[in-house]
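Today's session is about reading a structure prediction critically. Students often jump straight to the picture, but the first step is always the sequence itself: look for stretches that repeat, for charged clusters, for runs of hydrophobic residues. Only then move on to the predicted structure, which in these notes is written as discrete structure tokens rather than atom positions. Here is the chain we will use throughout the hour.
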Amino acid sequence: MDSTAPYLSSRAHDTAGGQALGLLTTGLIDSVDWLYDHWYLLALAIAVCWSVGEQVVRRLAARASAERMALELVSNRHFDPGLEEIFRRGVQLARASTAMPWWAPRRAKTVQIRLRADGSTPFRYRVEGPAGGERLLSITPFGPDITANRARPLVDEPRTHTVRAEFILRGKLTSPLREVPLDPDPLQPLVDAVSDLRAELGDLAEIRLDIQRAPKWTLRARRLQLMSAARRTERREAQRAARWLRQDASGIEDSWGGQLHQLLSDRPGSGAGRRLVMPPVPRRVEPAEALGKLAEDDHLVRVQLLVMCASNIEGRAQARLSQLQAALDVFGGRSRWSMRGWRLGPWRIGADHWPTRRGFERRWNLGHCQPPRANWVRLEEITGLLKPPTVNCRLPVLAGDLPTFVFGQPELLLQGIYRSPDGRQRLVATYAEDTLFEVGVGKAGGGKTERALAQAIGWAHAGGGLVFVDPHRDSWPRATTFLAHEHLAPRIALVDLNGLGPNPRISSWNPLGMHHGQTAHEVVEAITDAYASALAWDDATAPRALTILTATLTVLVAVNAAACQAGRPEDQATIFHVRALLSDASFRTAALAAVADRLDDETRSWWKTVFPTLSLDAFAVVLNPIARLSSNPITRAFLGQPTGAYNIRTAMDSRMIVWVCPGGNGPTDHLLTALLARDLLRAARSRRDTPEHQRVPFRPYFDELITLTGAAPETIAAMFEDLRKYRCHVHGMTQLLSRLPTPVRLSLVQNASTLATTAGSISAIASITAEWGDNPSPDRVATMERFEHFVSLNVRGHRVGPVQLRGPNLDDVFAAQARPNNVAALERAAQANAGALPLDQLTTRAAGQLGRVTAFLTAHAPAGAAVRLSKDNEWN
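Below is the predicted structure for this chain, in token form.
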């Protein structure tokens, strides 16, 4: 075999390989050259592929976003979370953002926090996220102070003017935002920025914060980029330092001083020369220092912050956006929130303009998160946005929280004047059906009575019924100017017991009267309880007095029932006939004979067996208070009439406006007040005979509760406890809460729908501010201006406040309703409606009433009744 064959074969193989490599190289060069010449085709192919891929991703993201849920978080006034609780909530949100199908694009894997204000509510806090994360989002670490409600999608009506903005983090990428404390609430600047929104103008402001877990590969790439940049920076600094060091050394050696020093130091064999300069070594880059907040993977998220403001008035939306931008500056430190876009002179090109507007609206509508590269934060930086407003947040009072008062609407009760943060003032009200009981506290002259009068006058003009009990009568002349309307005159009655003038006109009332169809045992019980309340009787201290009075009243009420049945109501007995029944044997015999068949066996037995054993001294404790009432000509005339015109039950049912002025606060006045109060309680309870939906709302106003409760503490307390069931809603005013009897104080504070206080001493108002958790503090309330009030209110079952209101002034609020020329006519009509007659005429009638009652008893005694009585051992 030829020995050169393998060599030739190998050479041929190498030649073929070289030719193939050359062809490949030539082909690549030709391809590159072709692509260079036809670069637009490559760009077009890349664009087509990117466009197709983007469309696929968008469709998948839209499909994934359709399966989302929303929760609205509502915090109560005690919500005060700690940093750990908020941090845990942030961890939940970040974890919930990944509860999506495997095919969902990253832009759809997000949890969105929506902070929204539209003028109807102060601040709505919503969380929207994947449907798979509902359970994780619903169970919050905040405890019972947060209520998570499933929320429906929000649909906004189109506004005329809308502005949009996207905020990105400016500053060093690795620097954190400012650490904002929790007190005051970090949300306070944002709340203040939207506090003057007006729903009637179409104002709307919404902030959306999207939270997305950080992609690992993106984070690693960012870290590599930051570390490389840090090393390059360190090398440049080292090179710069070496350059300056060499320049400094060369400058020293080339200077005159350096040359002279070298000449003097030059000696043979010294070896002196140019000194050696060692350049500085680049400092080692520490990852923690170079990466900052990106050094650790834990609790690092990407965020997207979008803002939209709208209004139907030009300029308001842009101004609102500027306010929100200023509010976000609070979070700024070495890193800060800044509006994304470019500024060209007076123009800003941002989310409202091409080419970014369309992408903004897509992300806004679908809830997609495509944050800028710089928006990396740790959860600790955004703790202020991870929770609803706390107890440390001062929320504005909007029309949706506290309705605006409209004159003539029976659904509303005037409360005062609220000054909004932008300086606007409006009359605010509560809903009548929510205002069950109301308490006003404050020093004399502070405006609590004026506020109650404004409310009562507004309620009267709206068609409501009320009784205003004022021992001092000052409220009546103050109110008449604004009540002197023809359509109100038939409903107004004045019961004035102050006895002004030489022969005053007095109304009349028979507490024992049965001509209005009262229930006998309820009348007896009301008068007995009034006696016991005014005189501090109970079963332990005055059992015999209570028994005597009850038995006596039972007989007199039976007499009156018989008189009314016989068509002789003018022959009814009065409370002054208790003395005749106990001390006049002939009158007693006639009365017992006339009503024997109306008395139960126990009552007849008591009069037959027990009464004869009592001495005259036993009656003194019962008769002395009645004697005091009789000695006063005003009360004698008022209570001594058989058919009194005063009937509070009729007033309730017919929407009457009754002014009652008892006059004075002595022992006699206390007993009269106790009788009136107990009759009011009895009348309200008697509405049991009317279906609840047919009971007409009625509002008693009690001025000077200290005076009234001194006479009937248990009665007033029972009113604050029971009367709401009968649609009778009590309003009380007092200077000092501590001066009220304990049962009254506890009942009215416990049940008050509205609690108000004016300025006063710290010790006097501390009991009110304590009900508010000392927020505001007693010091702050004590230094308020005159006519200012702090008020807590109940609106649709929710507590509002305490909020500072200015008390309404009648001359300002109801200036259009003032009718000073009609006051005299109103006075006459009010007295006529109350059946008021001259004092001397009533006194004469009261003096002859005993004779008329005796004549009636004699004429209507059953045949043979006197004979039976004489055979029963004479009951006297």
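Discussion point for the tutorial: Residues 448 and 830 are 25 Å apart (CA to CA).
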